[in-house]
Amino acid sequence: MEMVIPAFIVGGVICVIGQLVMDLTKPSFTPAHTLVAFVTVGGVLGALGLYKPLIELGGAGATIPLSGFGYTLANGAMEAAGTRGLLGALSGGLEAAAVGIAAAVLFGYLVALTFNPKG
Amino acid sequence: MGNQNLRPPTIAVTPEEYSQMSMKATPKPTMVKNMIWAFGVGGLICAFAQIMINVFRHMGLSAKEASSTATAVVIFLGALFTGLGVYDEIAKRAGAGAIVPVSGFANSIVAPALEFKREGFVTGMGARLFTVAGPVLVFGIATSIAAGCVYYFLHR
Prior knowledge:
heterodimer, A: 119 residues, mainly alpha, 6 helices, B: 156 residues, 78% helix
């Protein structure tokens, strides 16, 4: 069961950072703002080459938080930019993150279709 | 000037100073509790995903395939538990521990879609699916394109 403890710790620490962001900002800074901040910061850290070491350290602990989603987008765009130029820069991010986005849209719609709101 | 009759303040603090003092004096036990909950639940979700990655690797998937499959499963479970009404109960306690992982992203997609179900399949569920996911995708994709362009011009 390699990497499970590091994943727990790295993932936990990233969520604590998120909790601090939520607790130390005004209530007008909603969870939606927190998610946007995480995806953006993850993308910027990925572009600077600072997020990859975190994934090597924590595995799923760094890829499962939304900052990992930002990293996947930025990393995909940079890899594609290296091989296919500016067109790759445009398409590479979505290509790399396609599984996550498609899964979220499909499962999200199916669940909303299946269940009814409480109350 | 009506306030001429008021007695002068007994302590010389401005309202700003006072609000700072009261903020310092207010105990913050909930913040530590929130952090412990966020750490535990967020860590558990990631550890669970890591176990899945290890199993998928063992089944012969590549590192990238195993990682994105595990992400998809966590998204599915986040959506499912939101539909069952369980996820929001967990999020009440766990806060960012339930919001920051991709299962929280799935929750932010399902919850508004479910809430506006009666407005129909298209303008209700179809549109509300992106209440939070929309901004996340806008900023995520914009960041990725900027990163790709910078990389292209630096490594040309």
